[in-house]
Structures are given as C-alpha cells and as structure tokens.
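Example record

The entry below shows one chain as it appears in the dataset: sequence first, then structure tokens.
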Amino acid sequence: MTKDGYRAANTWLGHLPGGLAMSSVVGAAAFSAISGSSMACTALMTRVALPSLLEHKYKPHLAVGSLAAGGTLGNLVPPGVLYIFYAIMAQASVGQLFIGSVIPGIVLTVMYMIQIWIQCKIDPLAGPRAAKTSWRQKVLALRDTAALIFVFLLVMGGIEFGIFTPFEAAATGTLFVFIYSLLRKTMSGQKLAQAFRSTTITVGMIFAVIVGAKIFTSYMAITNLSQSLAAWVVELNVSKVGVIIIIMIAYFILGTAMDTLSMLLLTVPIFLGIIRALGIDLIWFGVLVIIQMELASLSPPAGMNLYIVYSMGKDKGITMGTVFWGVTPFCFTMLVFNAFIIAVPQTVTWLVSVMK
C-alpha cells in the first residue's frame, strides 16, 4: 500500500525540482495516516524510496534528510500512537486530538515540500527533475491511493462518529489491511509471524514504560509536586506564551537524551498541572507536544529517525555525517512550524470546534 502511494505521489510530483524527495514526504504522510508510528514510517519509506532517490542521482544529504523528516509525520498525522498516551494521561478526547492534528499535518507536509523545492532551486543538482507525466497518467495513479484513503476514512471516521472506540478502530483497520494483503497475495506465513513478533516486542516495551510512568505519576500525586510547580509558575506572572516556550525548550533539551514515548510519559504529568492552572487548551497543547516530540526524533545527535535512516542506508554509502547534514534544514523548518502553531492556535482548534 505504501509503495502504491509513493508511486502515485511520484507520478504527480516527480517532474518538479526535488520531486522525488517531495513524493517521499507525501508518501510518508499517506503511510502515517494508517500507521501512527514515526519509526515505522521512517523505516518503511527509507526502504521504499532511498534506492529510487539515489538511482535518480539525488544528492545523498537531500535524500536521507527528506526521508528522516517525512518520518516525523508518523506520529503527527492522525492516528498517531502518542496521541493515545497523551489522551489517557490528560483525560482528553482522542477523537478531538486526531481531528486537531489534521491541519497541522497537512501544513507541515507542505512546508517540507516548499523547503525541498527551495533547496533544489538553489542547487538543481541536489534533486534532478524526473520525466513529465500526462494528466491521464496522473488520474490513473490516483487509483493506487484508494486503499490508503479507505483505511484512513474507516479508522478516523469510525472514531469521530462514535462507531468505534480508538482501540476498536485500530483492530478494524488492522483486519482490513490483513484482508487486503491476502487479496493482493503479499502475505506469507513468514511475514505474518514477523508481524506478530514485532508487535509483541513493541507492546512489551510500551507496557514496561507505562508501568514506570504510572509509578512516577503516583509519586507526583502523593508529593503534590505538580500542583506546587503549577502554583509557583502562576505566581511568577509569566505570560502563557512564555510558559509554553519554556516547556518547548525543555522538551527540545530532553529530546537529545530520551526517546519520545519515555519523554511523553514522564513529563506530561508534570506539565499538566501548569497547563490546567493557566487555562490553556489541552487539545492544542497535546498537538504542540507531539510536534515537539517529532522534532526531538529528528534532531541530532540522538534523534531516533536519524539512526533508522543511517542503519538502512549505510550499505549504500550513507554516513552519519551525511544524515546530520541532511536533516538540519528540516529541523529549522520544524522550529518555524512550531512557532507558527504557537502563534496561530486556531490551526489546531478551528477544525475541532467545527466537528463538535
């Protein structure tokens, strides 16, 4: 399904400067709409797109940078897994978090594409144009996206209209994709066993982190540390925007040493007291936190997406230095995007208010 989406995006965008890199970002956004995992998105798009990018003489730093950046859409575009954990801790609506993240996901995808276009205008050799395609080819390519769109509408529509709980929607989407793989004859016993093994490992890791986070949350409640911190911040008489910027800086620093899930589960209980005391919208704050988590996964030296791209590309001559160089412009784009979400909170809250 991801390969189909990537081919369709390439048919539409490949003739533009950096078009294949743009297609990788759009393909990542499409996969994110049915996956919800940044690491899975980065790994799959690297496997699908990196050989094609290098074959078309893209400079390695742009190729790996666009793939690592595209992976950040994995948790930002609904139905991101991190939204589920944030909703549980903040007692917020999962459906509203998903709806609130739709426009930010689209905006960031477009910003990545614009940045790739600018890079390739400055250095045309960084992302050579592919051959043009006819309008007939473009229209026919849309058929390849039908399954992706259906799964997204099935999961998101089911949650939004109250047909499924988020967990039931996940099961329903998984079942459809499994049936689709059988119809396409792409599922084997070995692949199915690998999927179960991968899922078991991931679930075990997540539950271990949750247990630790629950203990930490209980400690926070017993000691009243969160409430005391919130009262102290309110007494400082700092503006809401100032508090948010300080929190975002703290997340950026923590992101250099922690993975996103651990960081989310350990910090949200601390910051929620402050956010509630200041009357900040929990849905908007949740989307902003996930954006900052994704920036952490992209930022050197500890961003997880960087090491995934490197490990999958080192046999093609990709070095860690190339990856660091390639993602730097995308990190700046994410910082601008983060500032935009802070300055224009309606980017998140408008669609939520419309869908209520």
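Notes for this example: Residues 2-197+300-355 form one domain. The chain has 19 helices and no strands.
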